[in-house]
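Please fill in the sequence for the structure shown.

STRUCTURE ENCODING:
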């Protein structure tokens, strides 16, 4: 009887030892380490802010840029370009010299000027899509000139603009010199309505 107990004890120890070895060397599932929360970097944090009280909006623009008014048009661009433009009485040879503009368009101007001009024809290809500006989904036009056209536009020039609805019309935010498209897109992301 004692030999049966010893045999039983040996078998139990072998089973326990085997279980411990299996547990030790069994592949363990990888524990899910929490991925770091992506931090959103505000690339315009150190930019200047233009505030327009007439239409209750603000928009950021690069530190080395300047803004001014040419008639009713708000112009943005590199400091030296805007200073030269204003010192020349806002006279331009080519529309691209205006770099980036904001204009107010009445609903009538929108229907009579904006809509007809934003159509593909033999001189230009126009693509309409939607983007978000100031928490609004707005019309976004990309105009690619196929031939030289008025206002100094050359074949290959690209104009990008959005139409943001405001009271009694639209703010037309236009990039006339496509080399600044990255700045333009960042400016659009910074656009916000001011609530008083």
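FILLED IN BY: designer on duty
SEQUENCE:
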């Amino acid at each position: 009887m004692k030999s049966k107990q010893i045999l039983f004890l040996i078998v139990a120890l072998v089973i326990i030892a085997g279980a411990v070895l299996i547990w030790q060397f069994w592949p363990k599932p990888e524990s899910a380490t929490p991925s770091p929360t992506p931090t959103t970097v505000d690339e315009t944090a150190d930019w200047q802010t233009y505030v327009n009280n007439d239409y209750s909006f603000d928009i950021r623009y690069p530190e080395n840029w300047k803004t001014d008014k040419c008639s009713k048009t708000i112009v943005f661009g590199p400091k030296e370009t805007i200073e030269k433009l204003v010192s020349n009485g806002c006279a331009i040879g080519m529309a691209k010299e205006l770099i980036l503009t904001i204009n107010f368009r009445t609903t009538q101007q929108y229907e009579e000027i904006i809509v007809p001009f934003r159509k593909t024809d033999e001189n230009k290809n126009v693509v309409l899509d939607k983007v978000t500006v100031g928490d609004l989904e707005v019309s976004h036009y990309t105009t690619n000139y196929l031939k030289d056209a008025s206002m100094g536009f050359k074949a290959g020039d690209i104009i990008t603009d959005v139409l943001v609805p405001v009271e009694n019309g639209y703010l037309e935010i236009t990039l006339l010199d496509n080399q600044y498209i990255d700045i333009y897109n960042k400016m659009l992301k910074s656009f916000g309505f001011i609530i008083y």
